Prior knowledge:
Elements: H1 11-37, H2 41-45, H3 55-74, H4 106-126, H5 139-161, E1 183-186, E2 189-193, E3 209-213, E4 216-219, H6 225-233, H7 245-254, E5 262-264, E6 270-274, E7 277-280, H8 292-302, H9 309-317, E8 372-378, E9 403-406, E10 423-425, E11 434-435, E12 439-441
Parallel strand pairs: 8-11
Antiparallel strand pairs: 1-4, 2-3, 4-12, 5-6, 6-7, 8-9, 9-10
Helix pairs in contact: 1-5, 3-4, 3-5, 7-8
Amino acid sequence: MTVSPPGSIDHSDVAQLRERIAGVLTRARQRTLALTDCVEDAELVAQHSRLMSPLVWDLAHIGNQEELWLVREVGGRESVRADIDGLYDAFKHARANRPGLPLLDPTQARRYIGTVRDMVWDVLERSTLQGTRLVDRGFAFGMIAQHEQQHDETMLATHQLRAGAAVLSAPAAPTASVAVTGDVVVPAGEFTMGTSTDAWALDNEGPAHQVWLPGFAIDAAPVTNAQYVAFIDDGGYQRPELWSARGWAHRIEAELVAPQFWERDSSGSWCRRVFGVTTPLRPRQPVVHVCWFEAEAYANWAGKRLPTEAEWEKAARFDPATGAVRRFPWGDTEPGASTANLGQRHLEPAEVGAYPAGASAIGAHQMIGDVWEWTASSFDAYPGFHAFPYREYSEVFFGGDYRVLRGGSFGTDPVACRGTFRNWDHPIRRQIFSGFRLARGLRPGEGE
């Protein structure tokens, strides 16, 4: 969407914005229903992993957040189901405990989210989309569209964890169209990190602030399956000197020997299970389903390191020719089929080199889409941060045992992904669609 500072907008702009909001809300709901209608009700109420909620909890939670923010806060309407607010408060009930709650059954959940959405259409039609900070330029509607898509990606991860026959399908991800190897140099200097102007940016993405970084090099592409196999073959999971003390303890306790969902076939070759289908490993795809500790060990093995969050963002957004920062690596235009693997268009990462049109100004490829990329950074507030519109989205997680991930995955919708978007998770998590790329300091004379 067009980025502009807050202020009054004319009638035609309001109509255009209202149309965009309707589009992203509809797209999110279509995806939600596709992820829940594809399985029997018994699978909706089952817990496929203690790390994840039953799908039916996510379904009703999506509707509950929409009711809270759009029906009640923005629309000023009476509650649809105030009695269920506590059931769908993510901070009151751990995921492992949610199956034991008196949740809405699938039929009730579907009816509930439909009722809420019908009310939202009326709220949207009546809203001026300006005035208070919550509604200015449609922020609350954009926030809810992003929230639903974030839970859709979580439900997609649940589908990857469920046993049984495949129920999802999509075309195979693209093969490489150009060769992408080595790393690229990012010059020393200052750049603007974060945003204060993006209409739908979430609170932890701002405020924009200046960051100075020494020169560094970053991989032109995420680490691939073939590169990760070399780490395994060189004893990467049996060499404690490559792992931090915490990482090695987790490797032993969790019995890690390869990325999650990898297995060997009868010939000893690696395969991976992808949404119920076992398929041969595609060597040029980015590795996916690795935790932060695995990424850290690989970096030590390769003689490099994980990039900091600031380094990642500068490599993705900074244009050395102009000194400006872009909304996306390729520019300010919205993601499309030629620039990034997003939106569950495919059910896997694309091969490295599949999206040359999406490269950043400094030549880094596939920094948006394909796999979330672990960074070295903990999840903390930017200078001048203010929680909005509620502390529980970001603030309560600052300073915890979290590492930042950037860039989105093949399961991330474009509305919930941009060069400033920040994700975070515990360093042991790998059921998420996570991979990584590496960075290093410059050698003497390099980058001059």
